[in-house]
Amino acid sequence: MKILYQNSFKKSYKKRFFNNKRLINIISLRIQQFNINPNDIQLRTHTLSGAKKGLRSLSVTGDIRIIFYYDQNDNAVFIDIGTHNQVY
């Protein structure tokens, strides 16, 4: 499995976390953890419903989430990152 990053994810990441080195390190560790085991219980990966049906979410910290989906090649495509209120 590869992790692909949509431009919307890159833009949100840069805008929201560019100046916060501590969070950048945590995000990097969680992405590495996801790459090793996407079902790691610590990531609290789950499917979404409602307007975001078909997408999935993983927890970076208590409030920061990454929204993603799996494409037809089973690659994880990250589309957004931010606090719970920012991504939902």
Main-sheet strand order equals: 1-5-4-3-2
**How many separate helices?**
3
- In CATH, the architecture is 2-Layer Sandwich
Structural class: alpha+beta
Classify the fold: give the CATH topology: YaeB-like fold
Q: Using the CA coordinates, give the radius of gyration.
A: 12 Å
Would you report the number of β strands?
A: 5
Which segments are poorly predicted (pLDDT under 50) over 5 or more consecutive residues?
A: none
CATH class: Alpha Beta
Overall helicity:
25-40%
**CA distance, first residue to last residue:** 26 Å
Major β-sheet annotation: 5 strands, mixed
Return the string of H and E elements.
Answer: EHHEEEEH
User: Mind telling me the CATH superfamily name?
Assistant: RelE-like
Report the β-strand fraction as a percent range.
Answer: 25-35%
Tell me, what's the shape?
globular
> What is the residue-averaged pLDDT?
94
Number of domains as seen in the coordinates? 1
